[in-house]
Amino acid sequence: MGITVNESAENYLETILVLSRTLPVVRSVDIANELGFKKSSVSVAMKNLREKEHITVTDAGFIYLTESGRAIAEMIRERHQLLSSWLAKLGVPEDIASEDACKLEHVLSVESFEAIKKHANAQFNKENK
């Protein structure tokens, strides 16, 4: 995918995506509450994401993902969901699986993730026959 973003930015974009599925609008305060960060820290991050054109922010403070922001967020979300469910299936407690998935989702190459995804999906399909 040619877009490189740091881990923190990926986490913010993923959080915006997740919140946008449950809230009518996403604001900085919602992100701060979700992540347990200070609103000032979130404001700095939103400024950086806006400058990189991964989000837009309305005058009322509503945050929306741009096409590039959504692509990154969906990629990270897919990685998180697959890795955490795969680790849980391997017997890792769910809270630890989710925490480890959070770390792994940012450092795996596209090639490694695709190989894990292919293997995990093959195992899942075999188990459900």
User: CATH superfamily of the largest domain, please?
Assistant: Winged helix-like DNA-binding domain superfamily/Winged helix DNA-binding domain
What is the CATH C-level name of the largest domain? Mainly Alpha
Report the principal-axis shape. elongated
Structural class by SSE content: mainly alpha
- What ranges have pLDDT less than 50 throughout 5 or more consecutive residues? none
Biggest sheet character: 2 strands, antiparallel
**Mean pLDDT across every amino acid position:** 91
Number of domains: 2
Number of strands: 2
Rg from alpha-carbon coordinates: 16 Å
- Give the ordered list of helices and strands: HHHEEHHH
| % residues in beta strands | under 5%
Number of helices: 6
* End-to-end distance: 33 Å
CATH topology type of the largest domain: Arc Repressor Mutant, subunit A
Main sheet: strand order: 1-2
CATH architecture level-2 label of the largest domain: Orthogonal Bundle
User: How much helix is in the residues?
Assistant: 55-70%
Structure, explained:
Helix content is 70%, strand content 5%. With 129 residues, it is mostly helical. The protein has two domains: 7-66, Winged helix-like DNA-binding domain superfamily/Winged helix DNA-binding domain (Arc Repressor Mutant, subunit A), CATH 1.10.10; 72-127, Diphtheria Toxin Repressor, domain 2 (Orthogonal Bundle). A two-stranded antiparallel ribbon has the order 1-2. Helix 1 crosses helix 3. It starts with 6 loop residues before the first helix and ends with a helix. 23% of the residues are buried.
